[in-house]
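can u do me a favor
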């Protein structure tokens, strides 16, 4: 009972992230998916096999959350707290990421003794995850654009070769009047 009276309150905030929209509407599709090409489809990053557990692990990873952890350390340091004992793994215990049953929605909860830091941390987590998911989409689009540019160059060469063969054939067989 006495420890409860003297214990510092822990504040919690939460939000949801929708990892994938199952809608098949054209609005939600990658523009490159409209092109019917098996080769092109390999460049589209979001595969049809979706692993929500992998997404959770990516969201929990240091590569995604390190900027958020550094933000928290800086905020505590700014308020005069000694942060030399702060570690990423111990800080990660303040974060709870759960999947909502039978959905592709993640519920992210963050706990902290400093109530002023909870909302900014949740915003940073959201921003970092959006950067991660946008980076994959951008990478897929860039690969798709490179592929299409290479195909255009190949087809231009083939087209010129075909026109030259047509002209040669027409001249040899007196089918047209070419200069």
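np, heres the sequence
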């Amino acid at each position: 009972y006495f420890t409860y009276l003297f214990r510092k309150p822990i504040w919690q905030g939460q939000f949801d992230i929708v990892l994938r929209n199952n809608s098949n509407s054209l609005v939600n599709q990658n523009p490159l998916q409209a092109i019917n090409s098996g080769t092109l489809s390999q460049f589209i990053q979001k595969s049809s096999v979706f692993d929500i557990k992998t997404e959770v692990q990516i969201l929990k990873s240091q590569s995604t959350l390190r900027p958020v952890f550094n933000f928290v350390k800086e905020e505590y340091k700014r308020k005069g707290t000694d942060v030399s004992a702060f570690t990423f793994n111990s800080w990660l215990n303040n974060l709870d990421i759960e999947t909502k049953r039978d959905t592709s929605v993640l519920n992210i909860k963050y706990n902290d003794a400093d109530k002023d830091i909870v909302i900014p941390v949740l915003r940073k987590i959201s921003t970092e995850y959006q950067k991660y998911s946008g980076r994959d989409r951008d990478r897929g689009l860039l690969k798709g654009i490179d592929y299409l540019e290479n195909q255009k160059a190949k087809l231009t060469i083939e087209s010129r070769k075909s026109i030259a063969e047509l002209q040669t054939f027409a001249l040899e067989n007196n089918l047209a009047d070419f200069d």
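The beta strands are 11-18, 95-99, 105-112. hope that helps!!
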